[in-house]
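Below is the record:
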Amino acid sequence: MATIKPIRAMRYTEKAGELSTCVCPPYDIVSDGEYNALCAENPHNLIRLELPKGGEERYNAAGDLLNQWLTEGILAKEEQPGIYLYRETFTVEGKTYSFDGLVCLVELVPFAERVVLPHEETLSKAKTDRFNLMCATGCNFSSVYSLYRDKEGTVREIVKTSEALPVLAEFTDGEGVTHTLRKISEESTVTRLVNAFADKQLFIADGHHRYETALNFKNHLAAGGNPNGWEADSILMTLVDLEDDGLVVLPTHRLIRDLPVDKADFLAKASTYFTATEYPDVTSAKEVLDTCKDKHAFGLYTGGEGFTLLVGNEQADALFVEGRSAAYADLDVTVLHTLLLEGVLGIDRENMAKQINLRYTRDEKEAVESVRSGESTAAFLLNATSVEEIRAVAEAGDKMPQKSTYFYPKLKTGLVMNKM
């Protein structure tokens, strides 16, 4: 099963300035405004390497800048290998959570070997971008976020003991998330961790594009002779216990754009599979949906003060999707996409993939405001996909529709990096 390894990490030095001003969110959620703000706060912010700007030359420019920072001592590769213990502490809806991740290298294996299991579809454009950056820099700047089962509790025990190790870095970011980093370097402890993962499967939570790109890059180097001598058989990963109480998955709501939605006609067509109930206050939608987590339930908002609760009947529960697993067919997002978006509104899968009439947001207020402003014609509010549903789909060898999960908070990019 999974082969994990300690890493001689590339990390920021004191010459770079405050670490909190050097790290950045995952590249794919950074807006232009946030990009500029990160660079203005510290010219050594990693976003300049992780998301280089410009034309086709931008990837080589990132490689040159990386070499410059290494020469200047802004970044340096540590002498002693280790496995890093990374904790995120945060608050959601007034409740405080924390989870621990182990940051290390994981040997790359094809998905067909069922050691590392995906749960979500990927886009070729994103993989091309990441591939070009990897070719120019020979780095994993950001970590793949994966989950594992620890039935015996061996890893949990090591993590608990390692909490007594010295803190290498700690800061609280603009979202109120506190990031704490420690390093496990004692050889016997590292060996215990390596042995503990030898019988485990890993479930990718976030970073499918990065993992697939790393596989392609490994094969690319093998075919091309690897002139730089890069060690590309492993990828940087953060491993989190699937049963960690701090795991939080947020829902991703659906917005309908540039497509008229006649509410009365929609509800009439949807009545074959759903019971509709009107509620007077859309601000209560989350509270109402929370009471329906054991059912396929959605909040439909088309404007005004209230919303419509749609609850699936037995026919919705019995949904069958040809060529897909039962775990896939039982997902809320599958039921929504198949029966309502495609079945009622006529938004087919190609349309969804290209986001012609479909957009996404994890902010319920933003979804409502988008409809009220006329930017969207309707919003579908969802419950979050559970971690167990993610595991079930992955174990079935299936993949969820895009934007089915949003693990919160995201891992910071730049705390620990892999220079091949």
